[in-house]
Amino acid sequence: MAKIIRQTYPLEVSIGILLLVFALSMFLSGQIFEIKQPDLNEGKNLYLGMFLVSTSVIIMLLILWEEFLFPVKINQEEGKAVYRNHRTKLKKQALIYCIIPAIFIFIYLHYEVNLVRYCIWAVICVVTPVVGKLISGINNYNDFLVLTNERIEFKNNEKVGNIELQDIKKIIPIRDQRHVLYKVQVLLTDDTLITIDLDEMELEAYFGSIDGFISTHYGWLLKDNNTSAAGPK
Fold first, then answer.
1. According to the CATH classification, is domain 144-221 in 3.40.470.10?
2. Where are the domains of the chain?
3. 31-73 pLDDT, tens per residue?
4. Parallel, antiparallel, or unpaired: how do β-strands 193-196 and 72-77 relate?
5. Long-range contacts of 99-106 (CB under 8 A, 24+ apart)
6. Which residues pair with 44 in a beta bridge?
7. Which of 3, 112, 159, 229 is the most exposed place for a label (fewest CB within 10 A)?
8. Angle separating helix axes 46-64 and 87-97, nearest 10 degrees
9. Quick check: 183 and 195 in contact, CB under 8 A?
10. Among 11, 7, 10, 15, which Cα is nearest to 71's?
């Protein structure tokens, strides 16, 4: 059963923020175009161009602020929790993203633009979602963490593990300077130490839930580790 673990703002507030950003973008986007009169661009209404630019800004924001369309959920059953970078979400984000370059190509082909300002707006809207969300999602497309009462399974790029609980001597949570869990070390009964790099698996939204599950279900195996001078700030 999927459970939402991080709520976004109330719907009215979220829509209000989007409308405010849209209105501000609409007001500022006129600087992209060389011709200011709305009816004098070979029959193309300038307001349509401004509307399209503002729409691309909103799409960019929705990809970066992904909880608005894609609330953070975990698949949780009795004694089992599955954490992953959801593939369906990433595919939908990539599909939505394609609208942004399409808009800027359309504007470049059909309107007179100020090239410098056009390039600035285009770079912001086209590059920011890629750097902010899509690259990380693609890099961690197959990563996952499964916690059950019998085993711990994980995949982080080339690092894969399937550890039976009966083979674990200790679980050592590694926390940053804010006391937030970001890695888990597993010491096996044969003294092999395995590190699960949660911070490299695009699982930041799940850190609190993972910490809670470990504390609740693996409490007898825990060894607290609050010293993390090398951890992220």
1. no
2. 2-139, 144-221
3. 898 765 555 555 567 889 999 999 999 999 999 988 788 877 7
4. unpaired
5. 99/55, 99/56, 99/59, 100/56, 100/59, 100/60, 100/125, 100/126, 100/129, 101/126, 103/52, 103/53, 103/55, 103/56, 104/56, 106/52
6. 41
7. 229
8. 160
9. yes
10. 7
Amino acid at 14: S
Contacts of 178 (CB under 8 A, 6+ apart): none
Phi (first) and psi of residue 22, to 5 degrees: -65, -45
Length of the chain: 233
pLDDT in tens, 132-162: 888 888 877 888 899 999 999 999 877 888 9
Question: For residue 76, which amino acid is it?
Answer: Q
Beta bridge partners of 163: 152
CA distance 65 to 75: 21
